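Input (L,D-transpeptidase):
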Amino acid sequence: MSSRLTRRSVLASSAVAVPATVAACAKTSPEENGFGSTSNINGSGKSSATSTPAATSTPTANPTPAELTITSDHPITELHPDDTLKFAVVNGSLKDVKITEKNDDEVKGTLEDTVWTPEEPWSLNTSYTVTTTLTNTDSRVDPTTTVTTKIKSLDGDTNVVEMLYGDATVGVGMPVIIKFHKEVIDAKMRAKIEKAMEIDVSPKQEGSWGWLDQSQLMWRPKEFWKPNTKVSVRGKLKGLPTSSHRWITRDIEDSFRIGDSRILKIFIDEHKMDVLVNGKRERSIPITTGRPGASTTTRSGTKVIIERDRTKIMDAETIGIPKGSSDYYRLKVKYAMRVTYTGEFIHAAPWSEGSQGSANVSHGCVGLSTENAKWLFNLCAAGDPVVNSGSNRQFKPGEGIGCWCYDWEGWQKLSAL
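Output:
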């Protein structure tokens, strides 16, 4: 009997020694029995124990700095001139954007929300560096993160555009001519270009833009300009497309001034020219014009002096008459004023003075005596109207500065808007 009691007391001593070791590793709740198990006292007064797994530590998450994605309307390595940049940030927010090109020249632009718009369209064939500052939301990383991204604009082609006769004093028939070196075939693109144009006329006169063809945008008044008018033109054209792979790379800003009113009236069938200056006839000059024929008759219609040359080589090959032909000629003439791109000039023709005032004997030009030609040359300027009548061959718009081939209603229909 005493030996059993002694054995139980030994077992009890062993059982009491274990909780001290567990407690060093894990907490025990009031309901636990000291062995890491939950005690449940049943109705018989006996206890049962349910074992639980040993406690494990929770892994610590890695720091999460802000991440950035930049997109655009086109790939960011093929930006079109009018593209914007869009910034998407996770685990943070967008704080600042700085864009530079070569030589660290900063590109100006505006940031609204997460969209950055360049102040000027992207230049073609150019690389840029985008330096973006992000604010981190994870407190375990630095407050901000800086991200550097390389972007590039499209390797596109340039359509050169210019205003002809800028900064000149021109005649009352000269329209504003915006010349594109490559055609703008798409009508919607022409409309965007025309919408970007502004014109200031002093004194005010009614007028309209119109596309003479797909490479010439013109503004002409309803009637010939008033003398001494000042005309200023501006166009925010940089970055506008003129085809799927070609863009305008600069804006337009230019002006010209209208001089005195000088109008030349040519009566083909009467072999004479009346010269009107500010509404008054200054001189009536005997002339000869093109002899009858499909390719030689001088064209009727309102032309405009395009250019003036004190001396000019007239070579028939330039109008399709080959060397060896009985009609071929190559002459050095004086006081030449071009009125068509097809070869019509007003010039001195001393060899035809015997026919001037009585017959038409030229290849299409208007011939005058040297004296009259010199006087007229010194009087006139580019832009002076030349109103021809009396032949059955009509001047066509594309054969010269042809905006006056149209009446006012017809001209307005040539607007792209």
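The chain has three domains: 67-155, 158-259, 262-403.
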